[in-house]
Each structure stands twice: as structure tokens, then as C-alpha cells.
């Protein structure tokens, strides 16, 4: 089913107000969740609202906390998120990275002790739309087996890069697993199989059944051993740079998804060593060449990351945003104060 954008945003906002967020935070978070769903990332848009409300109620997210500067050295700043709202903490830090880049050409903000930022691409898009190349990533609790293991031992640690192309940003937003758990949930709720195998079932067989992968907790690393290796170095790099917790620390605390995690935000001035005209011409030429690649199937089109997102966004604004009816009813119930937190299904 499809829901008009403003209706979706306002319903999410009411749910967040009911959960205890103030007017400003509820507005920012509702706008972000609605935008994620509008871009086709419903797994971290509307679908994440019930879980976020649960975490606030459990005290795993402090809706009143603000990021606090710990140390600063030149173009690098380190903040403590104090377990505040992941979205507002990340927006603050990505914006601060851009401000540092305006001064130094590059800005790096490291954030520790924060909470789930929802859709990581939100902040890469934000930096690109401000005219800067953006790089950001987060560490998480262990939810993916290291290559060669049959039990969770590392996070799927989302990584995002945004190229500020004026004719449409090129934005990569990916977890280190073939499919994030949120995407598995989207397919399971829709009663669909995955387009490609995404993990193993409880018997160790590679499968496209999202529910079987959720049950086994054996999601498949992107690129097999390569995704596994990238996941562990991103975990270590985030904890090192932010002077915060690694995925192992999050595992030991066991407070849900990403509670207490570290995040890194890097903004880079694209015209530091080249003019606007020459840089933009280079980007357009490269993207045009990539997009003109011969498709393996007739009638299909090859595109760079982020280009299809813009098309989905346009369709969502024209026709309404695609939502799962079960999740939509849950969020409406929270907004109306008719659902006790113990009734919320967050799977």
C-alpha cells in the first residue's frame, strides 16, 4: 500500500512525540524516517519506528541527550553522543564535518557512545547536497559470521560514500553483508524470496529465504571473505578514531542494535585541487560512461549507485510512499497511544 508523504511523516512524528521526544527532535526524526521510506529504504524508514520507540522506553536511547565535544585537533573533532537519538547525533556530526571542511578542506568528526543512526546514507547524501564529498560509517554489535565461522562474530558495519555531482549525487550506502537484517525483514514481510542468496539456513545451506537467514543469524558477508575482512577493519577503525567501543564491547553490553556504537563522518572539499567546471565535467563523463554499459538483459539499464534512488523518490512523491501494512498499523497505534510497548513486534 502507498501513503502520502505528509501523512506518513506526521503519523511518525506523533508516534515519536508519544514516545517522549520533544517537538524539534520528533520533527527531524520523522522527516528522516519518511525520507528513507520515500527513497525505497523502508527497512530503515517506517519499519524502524517501532524498534526505536522500544529502545526509548527501555532507556537504551536518551531523547534528551546532546552530542558533547570531547577533544579537537585541527580538522578533527571527537564527540560523546551520551546515548542520544542516533539521527540527531549523526546530523549534528555530519554538518560539523562540513563546517570543518570549509575551513581546512577536509573535516573529520568522530562520535562515540551514540545509538542507531537508522539509514546511514542519510548523512552521506546530506554532505553531498551541501557540496562536499561525504564518507561515513558505523560499527555495530556482532550480527554476521566472520568468514569461516558459523556464528555471529562481527557487525555488518554500514559504509557510505557520496560524490557531490551537480547533475545528481552518486551515493553508495552498503552494509558489509549481502543484505542487512532490515532488508531481510522487508522481503519476509512481503512474503518474497531474496533476488540472490543472502545467507545460510540452520543446516548450513545457502538460501534466498529471508526468514531462514534471520533464524540462523548467518547472513552472508558481501564478497564472502572480503566483506568479512572489511567489516572487522571498519569496526576497529571506528572504535580507534572515536576512542569508543568496538563491536565486542557492544556484544558484552547486549543493549540491542548499535546502542553505544561509534560513527565516523568525513567531509572533503571537491574543489580543493581542481576547478568546479573541470571536476564536474570529469564526474559527468565518468557517470555517462558507466551508465552506458551494455546491460546483460535487454530492456534493463545499468546505473551508478544513487541514481535509482532519485527515481524512486520522485515516484514516491507523486504516487505515495510504499509501506508495509502491518508496520503502518503498528506505527498508527503508537501515534494514537493505543499500543503498549510490550505489544510491539520488532522482528
What would you note in describing this structure?
The model has no long low-confidence stretch (mean pLDDT 95). β2 and β3 form a beta hairpin. With 347 residues, the protein is α+β, with helices and mostly antiparallel strands. Helix content is 43%, strand content 16%. 46% of the residues are buried. α1 (5-19) runs parallel beside α3 and α1 crosses α12. It has helices spanning 5-19, 23-38, 49-58, 86-104, 121-129, 181-189, 210-216, 225-242, 247-253, 276-291, 307-319, 325-335, and strands at 2-3, 68-73, 76-80, 106-114, 133-138, 144-145, 152-154, 159-163, 170-174, 199-200, 206-207, 261-268, 321-322. The strands form 4 sheets. The protein has a 7-stranded mixed sheet, sandwiched between helices. It has a two-stranded antiparallel ribbon with strand order 1-13. A two-stranded antiparallel ribbon has the order 6-7. The protein is globular. It has 2 domains: 1-58 and 320-347, Malate/L-lactate/L-sulpholactate dehydrogenase, four-helix barrel (Hypothetical Oxidoreductase Yiak, Chain: A, domain 1, Orthogonal Bundle); 65-177 and 221-273, Ribosomal Protein S8, Chain: A, domain 1 (2-Layer Sandwich).
The CATH topology of the largest domain corresponds to Ribosomal Protein S8, Chain: A, domain 1
Q: Please report which band the strand proportion falls in: under 5%, 5-15%, 15-25%, 25-35%, 35-45% or over 45%.
A: 15-25%
CATH class of the largest domain: Alpha Beta
Q: Please identify, by name, the CATH architecture of the largest domain.
A: 2-Layer Sandwich
Radius of gyration: 20 Å
Quaternary structure: single chain
Overall 3D geometry? globular
**N-to-C order of helices and strands:** EHHHEEHEHEEEEEHEEHHHEHHEH
Strand line-up of the largest beta sheet: 2-3-4-12-5-8-9
CATH superfamily of the largest domain: Malate/L-lactate/L-sulpholactate dehydrogenase, NADPH binding domain
Uncertain parts: none
Q: Biggest β-sheet: count, sense, barrel?
A: 7 strands, mixed
State the separation between the terminal residues, measured CA to CA.
20 Å
Count of DSSP strands? 13
The secondary-structure class comes to alpha+beta
- Helical element count? 12
- Which whole number gives the mean pLDDT? 95
Helical content band: 40-55%
**Number of separate domains:** 2
Amino acid at each position: 500500500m502507498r501513503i502520502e508523504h505528509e501523512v506518513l511523516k506526521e503519523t511518525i512524528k506523533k508516534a515519536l512525540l508519544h514516545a517522549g521526544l520533544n517537538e524539534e527532535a520528533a520533527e527531524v526524526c520523522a522527516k528522516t524516517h519518511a525520507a528513507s521510506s520515500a527513497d525505497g529504504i523502508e527497512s530503515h524508514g517506517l519499519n524502524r519506528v517501532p524498534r526505536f520507540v522500544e529502545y526509548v522506553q527501555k532507556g537504551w536511547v536518551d531523547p534528551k541527550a546532546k552530542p558533547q565535544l570531547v577533544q579537537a585537533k585541527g580538522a578533527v573533532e571527537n564527540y560523546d553522543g551520551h546515548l542520544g537519538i542516533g539521527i540527531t547525533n549523526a546530523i549534528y556530526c555530519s554538518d560539523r564535518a562540513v563546517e570543518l571542511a570549509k575551513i581546512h578542506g577536509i573535516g573529520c568528526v568522530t562520535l562515540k557512545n551514540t545509538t542507531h543512526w537508522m539509514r546511514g546514507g542519510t548523512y552521506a547524501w546530506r554532505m553531498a547536497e551541501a557540496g562536499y564529498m561525504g564518507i561515513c560509517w558505523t560499527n555495530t554489535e556482532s550480527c554476521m559470521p566472520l568468514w569461516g565461522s558459523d556464528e555471529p562474530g562481527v557487525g555488518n558495519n554500514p559504509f557510505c560514500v557520496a560524490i557531490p555531482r551537480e547533475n545528481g549525487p552518486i551515493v553508495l550506502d552498503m552494509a558489509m553483508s549481502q543484505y542487512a537484517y532490515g532488508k531481510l525483514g522487508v522481503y519476509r514481510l512481503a512474503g518474497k524470496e531474496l533476488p540472490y542468496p543472502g545467507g545460510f539456513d540452520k543446516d548450513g545451506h545457502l538460501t534466498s529465504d529471508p526468514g531462514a537467514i534471520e533464524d540462523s543469524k548467518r547472513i552472508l558477508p558481501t564478497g564472502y571473505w572480503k566483506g568479512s575482512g572489511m567489516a572487522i577493519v571498519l569496526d576497529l577503525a571506528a572504535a580507534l578514531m572515536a576512542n569508543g567501543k568496538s563491536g565486542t564491547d557492544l556484544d558484552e553490553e547486549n543493549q540491542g542494535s548499535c546502542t553505544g556504537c561509534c560513527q565516523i563522518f568525513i567531509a572533503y572539499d571537491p574543489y580543493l585541487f581542481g576547478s568546479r567546471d573541470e571536476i564536474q565535467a570529469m564526474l559527468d563523463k565518468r557517470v555517462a560512461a558507466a551508465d552506458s554499459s551494455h546491460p546483460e538483459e535487454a530492456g534493463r539499464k545499468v546505473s551508478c549507485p544513487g541514481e535509482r534512488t532519485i527515481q524512486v523518490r520522485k515516484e514516491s512523491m507523486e504516487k505515495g510512499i510504499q509501506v508495509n501494512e502491518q508496520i503502518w498499523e503498528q506505527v498508527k497505534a503508537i501515534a494514537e497511544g493505543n499500543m503498549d510497548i510490550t505489544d510491539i513486534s520488532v522482528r
